[in-house]
Amino acid sequence: MPRRTTTLAAALAGGLAAAVLTAAPAPAVAPSAAPAPVPPTAVTTTDGCVASVPEPGTTQPVRICYTVFRPAGADARHRVPMVMHSHGWGGSRTTDPAAFRRFTDAGYGVISFDQRGWGESGGYAHVENPRFEGADVRRLVRLVSRLAWVRQDGPGDPRLGAIGGSYGGGYQFVGAFEALRLRGKPLFDALAPEITWNDLPRTLAPRDVVRTEWALALGAAAVPSNALPPKVYLALVEGAATGRWPDGSVPGEEDLDAFFGHNGPRWHVGQGRRLDIPVLFGQGTTDTLFPLEQGLANWHTAITDRARRHSIFVGYNGGHVLPAVLPQGVDVTSDPCSRRLAGGDFERLTLRFFDEQLRGRDRDLRGYGRVHLATPASQCVSVGSVAANATRRVGRVVSTTAAGVPLAHEVAAGPITVAGTPYLTARVTAAGLDSRTFIGFAVGTSPADARLVQNNVLPLRERRPVTGVARRVALPSVAVRVPRGQKLFLLASPVSDTFVGMGSRTPGVVVLDGTVVHLPVVR
């Protein structure tokens, strides 16, 4: 499916994720590369529902509803691979055959389904909990394994890929990891998750500082269909209103860490599981809900070293995007890396990837085992490692708290290319209680015109007064080429429009002495 972008207004009106957001324009593809026209009647659609596990405290099975798309020529003698698809948060399954035209024209079957709590499916959304959504995906895999026209690798094991973005990427991981836990193999043969998460608590509230606008949007999107358990909805609203991430430490408070604790690859990896299948990762470099570092964490931890050699990571300018006003950022939608690798958009890259991984066809696809990241100037930077490999001494970094303007501190003069996951080390002094500042990278000719590189900041938080305490602080993952005549800056801001209302609880300053920035510099 096409990559997606959004604004807060769209998220509040209809949800966060790919299925309900406006599509980013796809790069043009040469007419010779387009598939031959196929009459609409060539694809046969079938609707249905399967029975899955009941909600807690009930005995009534929950129905999970789907639409199957059978391509022309697929039958018991001409079996085809299947591609599973599901929607983003607040959305529902796709029922229009035109949406999957590229896949069905290429001879793939498709099954699109309503996740628990959404569309025609019953129950509540448990946000990709293995016990619930994991069971739902297993029921659907069982259904696919019984279709006579679908290629099978063994009993109950269809040849199966998966697509979808945001929440539609989350089901891919929970389904694959649950099959691995129960059967010793993931059943999926290849995945293509986009703009999804590694660890929900750490991305919804990094260092327990709530991403206000996204927490509100997440709850608001669930209101029309009553998709979220009521206590979870109220806890999200409470966290956005108070600036406290509800963790159950207050009597009567919902524990969101517990609710979300098993709902992502990080938990499965912590249980000793890694997927040994090829994965095409797509992540938004300007995504402010599931930022680039969430995707890179999946790249490094969710799959085995062997699988990584047969996998590809693509970062594009897009995803869950809010206007970056304070600090001021960039406004760009582009996917230069999919264009470089496949001559088109991410969906075309996915199709070529599946042809190689599900069918064993040589599509001359390059870029395996590497990370390919879009810059704000719509260039593609490819690297084998995103780890920091260089240091720059910045010295003293000062930020006001609670109110004030972003302050830029020079890190390096261009030309320099940075691509990966940086961090800083410093001695931190903060006099107030619960001091917070938001740190990211900016580029410009001077501090006056420097703009946030890819719209992301991460909070530095000191809950109590500290003096000269050594800290290692994670910084947003980025990809940027700083040209000659411009500079890379470390930006420290007392406020962030992604974390509205999440500034320090008391006014004052945060001082970082002896600051050293550790950069992933492309040599």
Percent strand equals 25-35%
Please identify which CATH superfamily of the largest domain we are dealing with: Alpha/Beta hydrolase fold, catalytic domain
Q: End-to-end span in angstroms?
A: 35 Å
SS summary, helix count: 13
Largest sheet: 6 strands, mixed
Key descriptive features of the protein:
5-stranded antiparallel β-sheet, single chain, 523 residues, alpha+beta, 2 domains, disordered N terminus, 6-stranded mixed β-sheet, Rossmann fold, globular, 13 helices, 23% helix, Jelly Rolls
Question: What do you see in this structure?
Answer:
The longest helix is centred in the middle third of the chain and has 17 residues, at 167-183. This protein folds into two domains: 18-205 and 262-383, Alpha/Beta hydrolase fold, catalytic domain (Rossmann fold, 3-Layer(aba) Sandwich); 390-519, Jelly Rolls (Sandwich). α3 packs across α4 (167-183) and α6 packs antiparallel against α7 (230-242). The chain is globular and about 70 Å long. The protein has 13 helices and 25 strands. By secondary structure, it is of the alpha+beta class. Residues 1-40 have low confidence and may be disordered. The relative contact order is 0.11. Helix content is 23%, strand content 28%. It has helices spanning 8-14, 101-105, 130-145, 167-183, 200-204, 212-222, 230-242, 256-260, 265-270, 292-301, 305-308, 336-342, 346-359, and strands at 4-5, 22-23, 44-52, 62-70, 82-86, 109-113, 152-154, 157-158, 160-165, 190-194, 280-284, 312-316, 371-374, 380-383, 390-401, 407-413, 416-420, 423-430, 435-444, 451-452, 458-462, 466-474, 478-482, 487-493, 508-519. A six-stranded mixed β-sheet has the order 3-4-6-5-9-10, sandwiched between helices. Belongs to the AB hydrolase superfamily. Residues 62-314 form the Xaa-Pro dipeptidyl-peptidase-like domain. Pfam families: Peptidase_S15 (PF02129). Residues 1-23 form the signal peptide. InterPro entries: AB_hydrolase_fold, FrsA_esterase, Xaa-Pro-like_dom.
